[in-house]
Amino acid sequence: MAGMMTQLTTHTTYAGGFTTQPNEIDIDALPIQGEIPRWLSGVLLRNGPAQFEVGSMSYRHWFDGLAMLHSFRFAEGGVAYKNRYLRTDAYLKDNATGKINYRGFAVDPCRTLFKDVMTLLAPLPKDSRGPNANVNITRLEGEFIAMTEIPIPVAFDAQTLATRGIAHYKGDNIAGQVTTAHPHYDARRKLGYNYMTHVGLGFHYNFYSLRGRKRSLVASLPVAKPGYMHSFGMSERYLILSEFSFRLQGALPLAFGDQPFIKNFEWQPDSDSVFYVVDKETGALVATATADPFFAFHHINAYDVEGAVVVDLCAYDDPSVIDEAFLEHVRADDAPAPGSGEFRRYTVPLNGGRATYTTIPDLRFELPRIYYERYNMQPYRYVYGVGAAPDGGFLDHLVKVDVESGSVLRWGETGCYAGEPVFVPTPDGTAEDDGVILSVILDARAQTSFLLVVDARDMREIGRACVPQHIPFGFHGGFYREA
Ligand SMILES: [Fe+2]
Asked: What is the three-class DSSP state of 375?
């Protein structure tokens, strides 16, 4: 592959997590320390950026690295590992030409290439292999897909991690160019939900439900200046769009300008953030509640209470974390670490009042996960995440947060940096935390990574499976019993 001779730049910090991993490997039995529970049977699939340079060019932002899939397959106490780049337009063309060809989250390809880049508003060429879907993984009618914020999922084979190509929706007449890679699933209704921002003569938030591959419009809300939103909330009754005070400045620059995607959005410290609450059954906008300006990537959970919706997020005072995740910044030994979010529980009133929040002091974390299958849309007690010291540390431990009491349990080890914790319940468990947490950990001392298994009840390590190379920091993934 062109331009992939990068070496790890440091032995002592987390910069290795932002360093290209050129090797695609298959290992049937990773060396194990401790024990991997024998009941753990299935596969942990992960997605994230793993190539940051092509030829002499470099992506500038963590969020723009080329997507790599990872699988950790568990059987009878053993773990097999496999990793493959997602063969998308960006991966294939960038590596063939040794240049960055496509506009991404924060990429601005040079002007001479611009006339043939895939802009957000242009149709894909017929032979397209899809966008650089490096954010998350889910299933679409049984088929595994990789997702990003361009609403074109890329299918892959969960056994081989081979890229299949664009996954198509059926009966689709719902418009939109920007979406979230965090769809929700409502098990009672047997419906998925997501939304897209449509950029046309005006702007709309188009909420839709998903049954199998068929999308159906739930609501279309006109909006003057749409916000940048990485996820949304869902309660039993409502979809909750948290529009942060970080808003698009116009359609024309987004469509035809040469600015990177995220630079089209402007922080508005004097303009309220807004919660839009949409009824899942009727599509009616039942409430629009304002709040002091804030920003977030990730919703944690939401549920209905009398006269209000409780909306939990991992929140920031402003979106400066986006600038702090430029590679130039995160790779610098002397730069402060990117900030992390705080737990905020917003109460969003349905009577037109203002939304207010409570928080948990001295806690900074990101990549929050709950026991989603059972507690999504319900009152719940535990959220797991990747923790950072409030005074500026970087994602160097795992946290288990009791959102009722505010107490926090942690797992950490010197020189180790953690990835998103995925909760897997024990087969016969009854308590909310009966299960294990799976997390990919970068060991900066050894320049390798390992898959960590901790007991979710006390956050003590049960075992680890060691990978003989480093795994760049990823974003999201999931555990699948059958794949
Ligand atoms: Fe995310």
From this structure: helix
Are residues 53 and 4 in contact, defined by beta-carbon separation less than 8 angstroms? yes
pTM of the model: 0.93
Ligand 1 center to 31 CA (angstroms): 30
Express each pLDDT in 269-278 by its tens digit: 999 999 999 9
The predicted pLDDT at position 114 comes to: 33
What are the C-alpha distances in Å from 442 to residues 120, 355, 397?
Answer: 33, 38, 11
State the Cα angle at 181 between 18 and 210, rounded to 5°: 160
What are the b/e assignments for 274-298, b being 16+ CB within 10 Å?
Answer: bbbbbebeeeeeebebbbebbbbbb
Cβ pair 156, 133 in contact under 8 A: no
For residue 45, the CA-to-ligand 1 centroid distance in Å is: 15
Task: Using 50 as the pLDDT threshold, list the residues of the chain that sit under it.
Answer: 1-12, 110-119
What separation in Å is there between the alpha carbon of 14 and the centre of ligand 1? Answer: 20
Q: What is the pLDDT of residues 435-459, one digit of tens each?
A: 999 999 999 999 999 999 999 999 9
- The conformation of residue 263, written as its DSSP 8-state character, comes to G
Quickly count: other Cβ atoms within 10 Å of residue 364's Cβ.
Answer: 23
Beta strands 285-291 and 66-75, pairing class: unpaired
C-alpha 98 to ligand 1 mean position (Å): 28
pLDDT value at residue 249: 82
**Ligand 1 centroid from CA 424, angstroms:** 19
Centre of ligand 1 from the C-alpha of residue 99, in Å: 27
| Token duo for residue 71 | 């699988």
Q: How many Å apart are CA 27 and CA 29, to the nearest integer?
A: 6
Please give the pLDDT value at position 335: 74
